[in-house]
Amino acid sequence: DAKTTQPTSMDCAEGRAANLPCNHSTISGNEYVYWYRQIHSQGPQYIIHGLKNNETNEMASLIITEDRKSSTLILPHATLRDTAVYYCIVRVLSVVGRGGATNKLIFGTGTLLAVQP
Amino acid sequence: DAGITQSPRYKITETGRQVTLMCHQTWSHSYMFWYRQDLGHGLRLIYYSAAADITDKGEVPDGYVVSRSKTENFPLTLESATRSQTSVYFCASTNGGFATEAFFGQGTRLTVV
């Protein structure tokens, strides 16, 4: 399974952009990069995903390098409510049961983003 | 209400007891997952299911049993609970495919004494 590497923790000033890096050097050509976050004691929340093009939605932007070996999640204007653990995940394809295929979300340890007032 | 719900939210059980954690989703999603999260760790995949009657092991399946007789339900059973299974358990579901997001339940905090 493709693995991801993220810094353990990061700080960001409120109102500034938060840039969270992720390395996934063993990613396969058909594997997507997903980002989730987990606010204390809650279930993980989907943020964004991408294959090779940069993506943007109402929450964040995702920048994927051309070789796809790394990516950066950008929160353009961080707020205190963005304090959470951010997980970078590579969606893994595998065969299950009667020859069907499925894909798993394998979480790493994530980055604790602390937004400071 | 639409969504994914777990029950119970909190459970205390004794070592050696059997306990079942329930997960129910209303979207008819094909895929469902069970994770555990221990203090200071990320989420680790226990079991997952691609459809009714199709299940497979994840990273840490030992000591757990799952079933999926109906698409909307994916119960997780600890056959003989141990203290090492004290954890927060999260269930998730997704419609499948590479480009779909997974939705997580609110978690079940299980304590084995």
List its traits:
heterodimer; A: 117 residues; mainly beta; 0% helix; B: 113 residues; 7-stranded mixed sheet; 4-stranded antiparallel sheet
Textual characterization of the structure:
Helix content of chain A is 0%, strand content 51%. Chain A has 117 residues and is mostly beta strands. In chain A, strands 1, 3, 4, 8, 9 and 10 form a six-stranded mixed sheet that branches. Chain A has a four-stranded antiparallel sheet with strand order 2-7-6-5, with no helix packed on it. In chain A, strand 3 and strand 4 form a beta hairpin. Chain B is an all-beta fold. Helix content of chain B is 0%, strand content 50%. Chain B is built from no helices and eleven strands. In chain B, strands 2, 4, 5, 6, 9, 10 and 11 form a seven-stranded mixed sheet that branches. In chain B, strands 1-3-8-7 form a four-stranded antiparallel sheet, with no helix packed on it. In chain B, strand 9 and strand 10 form a beta hairpin. The mean pLDDT of chain B is 91. Chain A binds chain B through residues 30-32, 34, 41-46, 49, 51, 85, 87, 91, 93-94, 96-98, 100-110, and chain B through 31, 33, 35, 41-45, 48, 50-51, 53-56, 58-59, 88, 90, 92, 96-99, 101-107.
Determine Rg of chain B (CA atoms, Å).
13 Å
How many H/I helices of chain B?
A: 0
Number of H/I helices of chain A:
0
- Largest sheet properties of chain A: 6 strands, mixed
Alpha carbon gap, first and last residue of chain A: 38 Å
Portion of residues in beta strands of chain A equals over 45%
Query: How much helix is in the residues of chain A?
Result: under 10%
Rg measurement of chain A, Å: 15 Å
Low-confidence stretches of chain A are none
Backbone structural class of chain A: mainly beta
Largest interface: A-B, 31 and 31 residues
Distance between the termini of chain B: 34 Å
Question: What is the share of helical residues of chain B?
Answer: under 10%
Secondary-structure element series of chain B = EEEEEEEEEEE
Give the total of beta strands of chain B.
Answer: 11
Which structural class should the secondary elements of chain B be placed in? mainly beta
Percentage of residues in DSSP E strands of chain B: over 45%
Shape annotation of chain A: globular
Shape verdict of chain B: globular
